[in-house]
Amino acid sequence: MKQASHLLIVGSGSVGKRHARNFTALGCVVSCVDPRSDRREELGREANLKGAYPDLHAALAASAFDGIAICSPPHVHVEQALAAIGAGIPVLLEKPISPDLSAARRLEAAVRKSPVPVLLGYTWRWWPPLRRVRQLLQERAVGELRHVQFHMSAHLADWHPWERYQDFFMASRAQGGGALLDESHWIDLALWMFGMPEALSGRVDKLSSLEIETDDNVDVLMVYGENLRVSLHLDLFGRPHEKFIRFVGESGSLLWTASPNQISIGTKAQGWDRVETFQFERNDMFVEVAKEFLEVIARERRDLTCTLADGVQVLAAVEAIRRSSATGSTVPLLS
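Above: the chain sequence. Below: its structure as tokens.
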């Protein structure tokens, strides 16, 4: 009988718990790392932990692992990933790679010299409705695209109702919180669909009364050639929560919405010609990430859905947005 994979979950906050539950359901043995004993104990009540450790070095010294899922705040991602790579253990790294591009490139350089694979967790790439959107765009369902609008609006206090949002890493600049970094999912989706823009302009602000030291509003305009513009809005204060992407082409519009979970296509002045409704649950994409990581561990897969290089591209765009916001100028990205 094949022995179950032993996964180490580094960081037992919300996403760490989710990965622990999913890997356990997939038949894995799970251990965890968290500096907080209360979080280790809480995760132990949700998953049958083999081990629980206060730090990564203690875990690596105590046991052998088949894979490591890094689910800690972004400011410690790179050092933890480097420790895992140094131990020769495949890594599932939650996004973003780090708060800054230079640290991400340092990790990328180390990975290039190592056979250890790193799967990056920009999880919306695994969401079946968005894969369907990509297919429809390749089929030119609404003709040549002229404008695309990415929109994410969700009040931070609603994210983790079991804790004060002021104590959540999203409130901390030092830990890599804020709308631009944490919701760089949407930047990743833009790059996944269209590649790196030629240039962009952006504003990164703190606009609301939220008690945080990070940004809570981001507006970006990306330039793709002469005839395509992509806009992106992120905020941490909106209610009701909204996530959607609207694609406007020469022959109609395509609208993906997270709630309701559907894709709509319209080619007339009023109404939608086609609506495709999906029954997937949010956790389904995390399960698909976990399944792919287990294939990576088993050396059954090399073509990763999201690579470290993809995450470096996202941070290159993030740095450009920051630079544009600071200078009030359009920043070129492609020479």
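The domain at 6-123+285-307 is CATH 3.40.50.720 (Rossmann fold).
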